Amino acid sequence: MLIRRQFIAIGGALAFALSWLPAHAAPAAATGDPMAIIKAIYTRAAKGKGDGGGGFVVGDSAARAKYLSTALAALWDKAEAHAPKDEPGPIEFDPVTNSQDPDVKSFTVTGEKQSDDRATVTATIAGHHGKRAKAADNVIRYDFMRENGEWRIDDIRGAVEGDPWSIRNILNDSLKTEPGKR
User: Fold this and answer.
1) 21 assigned to some structural domain
2) Does 26 share its domain with 38?
């Protein structure tokens, strides 16, 4: 009888542990993977939630603190504080859609490279309004870094008319200009 009780107790504990793990492990896996983070952003953008996807950082200091590296979030906040009060901040476009008018019909996400503490993920987007003049304008790269055990976006890069841009560079450049003279 003692053996049967032990077997039931161990079986019950094992069943509890197995039922608990997937429920708690799945969200960590989704938020802990750079490709999953970017897929979630573009899934939202493709559903037309009104922010193009970039609303997760543009104009929202709390969201920047959550998704961006500490250094990039601090740089963005500093650059916004440097801008004149009656003007928009230094990022005057949606970096997620690389546009003024967010438009995502479909997207693909690929991992370019990943190490233990750095990763680069590429999103290639297609819009409802047709192709852009330069194919490079449809590609947005996200540089990630691992910070306090979590993946954080450390830069967002793309191109306009084939000319490369970087969020980090735009923010740094905005600090070099006298406020109101962009």
Assistant:
1) yes
2) no
